[in-house]
Each structure stands twice: as C-alpha cells, then as structure tokens.
Design brief:
It contains 17 helices and 11 strands. 47% of the residues lie in helices and 11% in strands. It has a 5-stranded parallel sheet with strand order 4-7-10-3-11. Strands 1-2 form a two-stranded antiparallel sheet. By secondary structure, it is of the alpha/beta class. It binds adenosine-5'-triphosphate and magnesium ion (MG).
C-alpha cells in the first residue's frame, strides 16, 4: 500500500483512468485526456466494468447527488468556459474540481490556494533572484505559477477559495481570462505568453466565508457559476460515509462500518442541516456547518476510537460525543437545539422497537 497520506486523484484512480482512456471512442476536446462522456463516467461511475490489459476494471461512483450538475460542469469546460463552484463548506467543491482535472488533464495538482496573503506574482510568475541578478530577466530565471503552467501546457489551473484572495488580486485574472494572454514585460524577446488550447480555470468559493457577492462583476461574468448543494438523500450520504471511512481505515475490520450507526449519523446530520425530520416535523436548526465531510470525520473518529480503545466494538457514547463536538463550534446554544431535536425524534420513535434511537436520545440528554 502507498505510504502517501493523500494520493492525488490521478494516482488513486490511475487504473480506472487508463481503462477509460483505452476504451474511449468519443471525441475529445483539444488537449483533453478523455472525451466528455468518459469524464462523466469517471465521476459518476459506470454500470458495466471495462476490460483493460486482461482485467475487468470497475469504474466507481465518486461524486453523489446531482448528476446534471456534473454534466453541466463538463460541458462548460468543454466549451472553454472557466468554471466557478460555489456552495456551503464540505459539499465536495474541491473534491469535484480534483476529479474533473484528474480526468481531463491527468493533473489535479496545478493549484493556486486563495488567501489574504496571495500576491500577483504568486498568481502569474516570480523570479529566481540569484539567476535574475546573475543573468538578467531570461526565461530560465522565471518561476512559473500554476496559472502560467496552465497557460503554457494547455491544462486546467484550479483556484481554491478564490474569494479569500484580495479583490485586486482576483481581478488580475480578468485579462488572462478574456485575452488568453499573460504579459511578461521583463522578457524582451517574448513579452507575452499565449494560452495553449486546453487551458482553463476551475475556481471554488465557499458561501459561508467572504462572499462571492464582493467579487467584481467583470470577473463574475467570465465564469460559469454552479452551486454544489449538500447531498439530500440518506442512502447516498451513507454510501459516501462508508466509502470515505473504508479508505481512511483500510487496515481496520470492515465490521466497524455499521449500517445502523451510519444511518443514525446520516439522518441526524440531514435533519439538523435542513431543520426538518423525516416525519415532516420542523425545528430550529443549529448554525454549525453539518456537511457530509463533517459526518465522515465524526464516523472516522468513532471508528478509530473503537479500534484503539474498545477492541473494535463501536461505542454509541463516543458517536454522541463526536456529533456534539461537531455541532458546538461557535455557539454553545447549538447544543440545546441538538438536544431538542433528539428529544422530539425519540418521542416519535417511542412506539418502534428501535432501542438504538432510545439509547442515543438518553446519551444526548446527558451531554
Ligand atoms: N456529493 C458528494 N459526493 C461525494 N463525496 C462527498 C460529497 N459531498 C461531500 N463529500 C465528501 O466530503 C469531502 C469534503 O469535500 P471538499 O473538501 O471537497 O468540500 P468543499 O466543498 O471544498 O469544502 P470547503 O468549502 O470547506 O473547502 C469529500 O472529500 C468527500 O469525501
Ligand atoms: Mg474546498
């Protein structure tokens, strides 16, 4: 097994990507490694396995929820339109942009990370000062940025959390996006770089952070916006929790992926996120972000605790503690809302034989 903590998508799914490329008869946009149909199959999975090198390769579903959204993203990119993925934290915006770039360019690492400290040379290019002083502004002294690499290699540049970057830095993208040229005035013989076919940008922005509202209209107009929403189907959310936890806990027993516990967790998160339970009852929802990513984290912690402290026996008490830690981040009052929700839920479950829910409610009451 690889020693790398988080392999990039093109490495993790190398076999799937190779099988898709070998069986791909569709038309590929310029410099794409796969056709749009094969990119879709890579992200949403295929019913039938593919034969490759004498092996049968299953193309697994990786993104769950809105298939039409994935198709719209691929179409935008195939028409050379930059893509902006916005949404609540933990809705898989970065994950989807990694999957798209892995499938399209076999490179999901060409990334700029937006932050308040981002400068224009981090976006465009900077210099190796030792070479610059010794030999002057020659191409060899230029240190390319991910945007520069995207332009020259004709691949996608990912721009993570773009709205966290200062507005004037965000706006320095406008000329590159409209003219597809990056000027490098210091290089006298070659003062500009023309974008190669295949170059594009996928940006992500979190709607809870510094908003997209502040972004300039000029920059907004140059992106196709797509909103990634939380998964609203319990079975899909359970599938993501299971899949991600089995990746994270590959060397622990599979029995730790317990359906009833995962169902309880996914239902609690879904209800608290929407402020409505499955029988239609409404309640005040906590302000904390309760995304699928947080649910994965809560379950992962519960599994690790069971493995190292409880001889691989899952503990409901640990699950409850981990859920309340995820809920109480900024506001202590969110815990009260969680308790009220569980109390009401336990009442509706009283007539059923579901002791798991009753035990859960008793433990939450003691939090
Ligand atoms: N719809 C989904 N399909 C598959 N996995 C999902 C989905 N939603 C969330 N996840 C899981 O959540 C993880 C976190 O997603 P990611 O970091 O991409 O979120 P994000 O939207 O970029 O969050 P942030 O705004 O905080 O950066 C993913 O790696 C994946 O395991
Ligand atoms: Mg992200």
């Amino acid at each position: 097994m690889s020693e790398v903590l988080k392999p990039c998508m093109e490495v993790l799914y190398q076999e799937e990507l190779e099988a898709l490329a070998a069986n791909d008869k569709g038309e590929r946009p310029a410099n794409w490694q796969l056709s749009p149909k094969a990119v879709r199959d890579f992200i949403l999975g295929r019913d039938k396995p593919l034969e490759h090198n004498g092996k049968s390769i299953t193309i697994s579903q990786k993104f769950y929820g809105d298939n039409a959204l994935v198709e719209r993203c691929i179409v935008a990119l195939a028409s050379s339109r930059p893509l902006m993925l916005i949404g609540e934290p933990g809705t898989a915006k970065s994950y989807l942009s990694e999957l798209l770039t892995a499938a399209i360019c076999n490179n999901s690492r060409n990334t700029i990370q937006g932050s308040i400290g981002l400068t224009e040379d981090m976006i465009k290019y900077s210099w190796n000062y030792a070479l610059l002083i010794a030999k002057g502004p020659i191409p060899e002294a230029l240190v390319p940025s991910p945007l520069y690499i995207g332009l020259t290699q004709g691949i996608i540049t990912r721009f993570e959390e773009i709205t966290r970057a200062p507005l004037e830095i965000q706006d320095s993208l406008i000329s590159v996006m409209s003219d597809k040229i990056l000027s490098v005035p210091e290089l006298k013989d070659q003062p500009y770089i023309m974008a190669q076919r295949g170059f594009n940008i996928i940006a992500t922005a979190n709607t809870r952070d510094k908003g997209v509202n502040e972004m300039s209209a000029a920059l907004k107009r140059r992106f196709n916006f797509e909103t990634v929403r939380p998964i609203n189907n319990i079975n899909m959310e359970m599938a993501v929790i299971k899949k991600e936890c089995s990746k994270l806990c590959a060397d622990m027993p599979e029995t730790l992926l317990d359906d009833s516990m995962i169902d309880l967790l996914a239902t609690t998160f879904r209800d608290l996120r929407t402020g409505q339970n499955s029988s239609g009852g409404k309640f005040d929802k906590p302000e904390a972000v309760l995304s699928t990513a947080e649910a994965v984290q809560v379950y992962h912690q519960t599994v690790v605790d069971a493995h190292f402290y409880h001889d691989d026996q899952l503990s409901l008490k640990t699950l409850v503690n981990n859920i309340s830690s995820a809920i109480v981040k900024d506001k202590e009052s969110d815990l009260k809302l969680f308790k009220n929700y569980v109390k009401a839920m336990a009442k509706t479950q009283e007539k059923t034989d579901d002791t798991l829910y009753q035990d859960f409610a008793n433990l939450v009451a003691k939090c």
